[in-house]
Structure formats: structure tokens, C-alpha cells
Amino acid sequence: MSQQFVVYVEDRPGALSRLTHELAVRGVDIHHIAAVGSGAMGYVILTVDRDDLARNALTTARYRFHEGESLMVAVEDRPGALAEVTERLAASGVNIHSMIVQGRRDGRVELALTVDDLATARRTLGL
Predict the structure, then answer these.
(1) Using one digit for the tens of pLDDT, what is the confidence trace for 33-50?
(2) Among 66, 67, 62, 61, CA closest to 21
(3) Distance, CA of 74 to CA of 23 (rounded, Å)
(4) What CATH number has the domain spanning 3-68?
(5) Cα distance between residue 86 and residue 18, in whole Å
(6) What digits encode the pLDDT tens for the residues 65-99?
């Protein structure tokens, strides 16, 4: 299973460009990416083709980041479905660190998320 990286960046022009450049020059192919800025900080969540190369690139470029195994979850594509899943995880004491919507098909939304307790999350969601 692939890793999901959460990379901390400054919320300023060029921050995303620098990050993606660092990955590109090391031959890392980004599969999924999401980014958000809030105040002085920004966060980039991504999955890639080569976790080892991405980890090395991020470390070499002195990025602060954390990573976790992607937990794949498919939910119905309807209002409230995501709330139900996140409420179940919360009730089990599982903290969600990151989430990316990977796609929609056949009335389902495919999610990749990282959590602090993978075994409990899998048990809770019947995965």
C-alpha cells in the first residue's frame, strides 16, 4: 500500500512550485495531490509512484512532513456519507491525519486517508 505524505510549506507564492520541482528533478511522479493555505502555513497532501524517492527528496530539501499508509475507503456519493464514516472513526478514537478524494465512480467516492491507528480504523470500517 502506498504512503500518503503531508508536507508543511509556507503559504506564499512559489511554495507549491518549489515542492513539485524538488520531486520532479528526482523522478517522482505525483499520483494525487491536494493543497491548502491558512495564514502563514500551507499543507500539501500527496501520493506518489515512489515513496522512497519522495521521502529522500523531502528530507534533502528540508521539508517538514509526516507520512502514513493510505487507507482506501469507498463511500456512497450522497450527502452525509462522509460524515457517517468520520463519526464512526471518531467514536472509535481514531484521529484522521489527512484525506484525499481519489475519484468518483458508480455512485461511490474513493478516499485515501491516513490515521493514527490503522488497525482500529480497519476494524471499525470493516476493511
Answers:
(1) 999 988 899 999 999 999
(2) 61
(3) 29
(4) 3.30.2130.10
(5) 33
(6) 999 998 999 999 999 999 999 999 999 999 999 99
Q: Which fold has domain 70-125?
A: VC0802-like (3.30.2130)
**Location of C-alpha cell 450522497:** 78
- For the chain, the residue count is 127
Single-letter residue type at 60: T
What is the rounded CA–CA span in Å between residue 48 and residue 33? 9
Taking the C-alpha atoms of residue 125 and residue 109, their distance in angstroms, rounded to an integer, is 15
**Cα distance between residue 69 and residue 46, in whole Å:** 12
Q: Which three cell numbers stand for residue 1?
A: 500500500
Domain with CATH 3.30.2130.10 in the chain: 3-68, 70-125
CA distance 115 to 10: 24
pTM for this entry: 0.83
